[in-house]
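Lab meeting, item 3. Inverse folding demo.
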């Protein structure tokens, strides 16, 4: 009887460890790092562009590679990850010149975005039109100094709360349009071209202008040219 009891107890313990192991595997977040998740397209100048591999199930945390076959990856293709419903975080390292039009548009679970904070490169980055449009829960956006241009509707209808990008030179029409959660936008010294409709529908934003900015100032709470 005692031996039978010990056998049952041992089976229960093994089962519990099995359940724990299953949960660990299930909850683990894998980073995308290679051809399993991406398709690489050759460009001029011995560089590559990147997009999601057809049929691939992408991980929640998507970290784009800096090179492929020993050559730099410098572009996210147009509509490359559009409409994805798995990705929650995207990390794009320094060295990417182009984030293509609608590259991550309507990725409805994407909440954290970092561009140009990892690695070192002299390449400058342009975020093309509607690149992150409709990413309805995107709240945390960190841009490195390499990001110079944000084109029209790039962050339209996102949940971004604040932005302090030190390398920006230009932002286009409705690039931060209908961002109801946007509370603070810092106009850095290098930012010299802001479309009049860049913040259309973002009624809660407060502008802070760097003293060394030669083009813009704030008058009665409104961003105006000097």
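The presenter then showed the designed sequence:
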């Amino acid at each position: 009887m005692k031996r039978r009891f010990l056998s049952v107890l041992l089976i229960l313990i093994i089962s519990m460890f099995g359940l724990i192991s299953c949960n660990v595997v299930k909850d683990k977040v894998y980073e995308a790092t290679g051809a399993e998740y991406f398709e690489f397209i050759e460009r001029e100048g011995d560089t590559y562009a990147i997009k999601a591999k057809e049929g691939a199930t992408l991980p929640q945390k998507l970290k784009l590679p800096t090179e492929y076959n020993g050559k730099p990856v410098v572009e996210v293709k147009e509509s490359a990850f559009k409409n994805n419903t798995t990705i929650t975080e995207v990390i794009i390292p320094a060295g990417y010149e182009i984030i293509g039009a609608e590259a991550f548009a309507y990725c409805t679970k994407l909440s954290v975005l970092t561009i140009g904070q990892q690695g070192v490169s002299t390449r400058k980055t342009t975020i093309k039109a509607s690149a992150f449009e409709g990413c309805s829960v995107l709240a945390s956006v960190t841009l490195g100094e390499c990001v110079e241009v944000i084109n029209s509707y790039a962050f339209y209808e996102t949940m971004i709360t604040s932005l302090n990008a030190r390398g920006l030179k230009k932002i286009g029409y409705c690039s931060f349009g209908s961002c109801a959660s946007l509370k603070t936008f810092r106009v850095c010294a290098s930012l010299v071209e802001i479309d009049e409709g860049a913040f259309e529908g973002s009624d809660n934003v407060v502008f802070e202008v760097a003293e060394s900015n030669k083009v813009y100032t704030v008058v009665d709470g409104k961003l105006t040219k000097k």
